[in-house]
Amino acid sequence: MGSFHLVAALVLGFLQAAPAPSQPSLSEKRNVLQAVVAITTLPPGELMKTPPTTSIEHDSEVAKTETVTVVVTIQGCQSSPAGGCQATADVVATRPDGSVHSEMKNIPLASGRGIATLVLKSADVAGVYKVEATVRDPIARRVAKAERLFGVKP
After folding, report:
1. N or C of the chain: less Cβ packing under 10 Å?
2. Is 89 exposed, middle or buried (0-12, 13-18, 19+ CB in 10 A)?
């Protein structure tokens, strides 16, 4: 009888020490809308030729004289019943002092990527600017946010 208790205690100890099978969390079970925002000086025509699945390199510093493009890329957009992604992005660019430089509204993201031109003028101050993108997927009723800093040279 003593050996039975020893074996039972060992089995019970092993069961308590064994990790429980992992269950995916609720957030892992559902699709998550992900957004990335980048600044580039690539010409818009070249950006349009680049597949949406290819990441665009972020330019961390730009000159006021360059054509600057804001690129918003998403993953996890839910297709509409008619097919295709209906997500859009609103982008706000802020100056180094935190004031709003410009707003770009309703940028379509049907292909998984959307672009908008950020117009810099010679009167704009040099320093670190921020772009914030708010992406809305009306079909899935999800929102994603992304932000990126970039420098403007004098």
Report:
1. N
2. buried
Q: How far is residue 119 from each of residues 94, 96, 103, 150, measured CA to CA in Å?
A: 12, 16, 11, 14
Q: Nearest 5 degrees, angle CA 74-CA 78-CA 139?
A: 110
End-to-end CA distance of the chain: 87
- CATH architecture assigned to 24-153: Sandwich (2.60)
Q: What is the pLDDT of residue 16?
A: 52
Query: How would DSSP label each residue in 53-122?
Result: TSPPPP-SEEETTS-EEEEEEEE-PPBPTTSSB--EEEEEEE-TTS-EEEEEEEEE-TTSEEEEEE---T
Residue 88 CA to residue 140 CA, distance in Å, equals 12
The pLDDT assigned to 91 comes to 98
Q: How far apart are CA 28 and CA 42, in angstroms?
A: 35
Question: ∠115-42-102 over CA atoms, to 5°?
Answer: 45
Cβ atoms of 53 and 76 within 8 Å: the answer is no
What is the tens place of the pLDDT at every residue in 118-135?
999 999 999 999 999 999
